[in-house]
Amino acid sequence: MKELTSGKPLKLIVSFALPVLLGLVFQQAYNLTDTIIIGRQLGQEALAAVGSTTAVVSLMFNIINGLVTGFAIIVAKNFGAGEHDEMRRTIARTITFSAAAVAVIIVGIACFIDPLLRALQTPASIFENARTYLLIVDFGLVATLIYNLESAILRAVGDSVIPLVILVISTVLNIGLDVLFVCGLDTGVSGAALATVIAQFVSAVICFIYLLKKRPFLMIKPKDFRFTASSTAELLSAGCGMALMYSIVDIGSIVLQNGINGFGEDIIAAHTAARKLFSFTIMPFSAISATLVTYSSQNRGAGKYSRIGKGVRDGLFLGFGCAAFDVLLIYTLGRLMVSFILPDCAQYVEDTAVLYLQVNVPFYFCLTVLLELRSTLQGLGRSVIPIIASIIELLWKVCTVMFMIPWLGYMGVILSEPIIWTVCAVIIGFIALVTIRRLPKDCAEPQISTEQEVKGANT
């Protein structure tokens, strides 16, 4: 475990973010491997089928991730304040609300999957494959929830290493099952989906065993399932606020996917390849953002407000360095990376994917400001502004489908996100600056060392 309430912020952020980043690397390595296996073994049509569901799958995953991340903000706050009994009660409430939310998602997708795919203008040639893939992933959300919940709780108490180790195991297993199901057993896109679900379930089991053996102070009991109005309201505000923010962004992506699917299989494949590489290159921003949520939450709970601004400054410094590296990477090796994912595609498809990346990557400087400061505000319990910014992003993507795509074609899709990243970064940046400057002064009373309490509880 790692307390983020003492020590140099830059060193703490780097040491906490590195395992998170490595975890994202392995996750994206799997995603890329999955894409390569599907593209090479099953062909462009199968890749387009999986790609046509990307926005919906991302929405499902991010609602879950948003909920548990938001709930973990309160867990981190309790941990930073040394309130272990309340922390366990928070975990119990987290399990209850998360399970209810996932049940609703699973039933909703299963009942409305056909109308949803038709609304997304999924081409008839890939409809059945897209339906099969989405349905399997939907029923596998139980495993997704359990693993993400366990990982979020561990990160909330400063442990970012064990989630990485378990994710590495999951990634290796996932790739092995991909090869077995898709290449060996010829199960098509359903095999790729099953491989993901099985690997996540195994990860969830391993993580639970670790919690049981090594982190007993996090284990809850029946008495912890007590709900009070104030604590429930705070938890739901944090969890639902983060989930709403994530889901609004992804609803916008679904709206945008609707416009993309109308271009046909070639553009869908090009966009899928470009987005896979996009997800790979923004991993450092995601890792730093996840770190700043925990960092700001723990320091808020400990009453060490002066450290928050220093941490944000150092996080942005790291983010800008990563953005500069991404620009260099895409402009030198972008075409090679695209051709590796789509080896036998038409030149037009490859050119389209490369163009998407080259237009988007210079705006990563705006994106890192948006992601990191949005996470900081969430960690400080200021969820309204990030949600408003997400609503602005949603409305802009609707405008993209209604106006920019008819006017500019696929170039309207390419330009859409750089524009909204810039606008939202300015809004979030200004409000975050004002918010941090207005934070209270540090608490005068010394805080009890949480690490010492945990050691005492375990002896």
Report on this structure.
It is a single chain. This protein is mostly helical and about 450 residues long. The protein has one domain. The protein is about 85% helix and about 0% strand. The protein has 17 helices and no strands. The protein has helices spanning about 10-40, 45-50, 55-80, 85-120, 125-140, 140-155, 160-185, 190-215, 230-260, 265-280, 285-300, 305-340, 345-360, 365-380, 385-410, 410-435, 450-459. Helix 12 (about 305-340) runs antiparallel to helix 13. The longest helix is centred in the first third of the chain and has 36 residues, at about 85-120. The radius of gyration is 22 Å and the shape is globular. It starts with 8 loop residues before the first helix and ends with a helix.
Write down the domain tally.
1
What gap, in angstroms, lies between the N and C termini?
Answer: 16 Å
Element order: H for helix, E for strand: HHHHHHHHHHHHHHHHH
**H/I helix tally:** 17
How many β-strand stretches? 0
Would you tell me the overall average pLDDT?
A: 82
Please state the oligomeric state of the protein chains shown: single chain
Q: How would you describe the shape?
A: globular
Query: Radius of gyration from the CA trace?
Result: 22 Å
Q: Helix content range of the residues, please?
A: over 70%
Helix-and-strand structural type: mainly alpha
Strand % is under 5%
Which parts are unreliable, with pLDDT below 50 for 5 consecutive residues or more? 444-459
**Main beta sheet, described?**
none
